[in-house]
Specification:
By secondary structure, this protein is α/β, with parallel strands linked by helices. It folds into 2 domains: 49 residues, Helicase, Ruva Protein, domain 3 (Orthogonal Bundle); 129 residues, Dna Topoisomerase Vi A Subunit, Chain: A, domain 2 (3-Layer(aba) Sandwich). It has 7 helices and 7 strands. The strands form 2 sheets. The chain has a 5-stranded mixed sheet with strand order 4-3-5-6-7. A two-stranded antiparallel sheet has the order 1-2. The longest helix is centred in the N-terminal third of the chain and has 15 residues.
Amino acid sequence: MSQSSSRHLEYAIKTIGQLPGIGRKSALRIALFLLKTKSSVLPELMEGLKGIRDHIQNCKTCHNLSDSDICGICSDHSRTRSTICIVESERDVMAIEDTGQYHGLYHVLGGIISPIDNVGPQDLNIPDLIDRLSTKEVSEVIMAISPTIEGETTIFYLSKLIKPYPVRISLIARGVSFGGELEYADGLTLGRSIVSRTTIEMTENA
């Protein structure tokens, strides 16, 4: 491997290269760009990263990203508080919000049930969801989980768990293809999927 003439530049390349999808060549280009813009872009980037490190946390209610104990969505009283949209990650919240088609609240599971990855129900933010349903303020729960095998397993598990509560359980319309990731669906398709959601009917033996 070639050696850089600057150990500081080499360290920057190594650090940037730890980011997802960034190889050494891309890390080098980014490092050189930041070097050229060290009086303009770099200070803003450093301030932004410092904000991530020091101020961003998970909302105590929905587990979405937040600057305080309660996120801006949960604290917004103009939102429809009787509807909770269950998603896998914070990225899914952002994707749905970008559609402008949903105005209720969210609950971020923090993952999906995946035995092959050793992720079970105990690893997800399920107890807090049940606590929210126990308040009797919620009349509908929307399952906005990626339609993968693991996602379908999670939906089935949650539906059985939620069944005793007097809420409608809905599933986003299958405009999002099976096996697709919710965050990568285009905004129009995702928005229509939310609006055209269908009710999940749970049988007595399910």
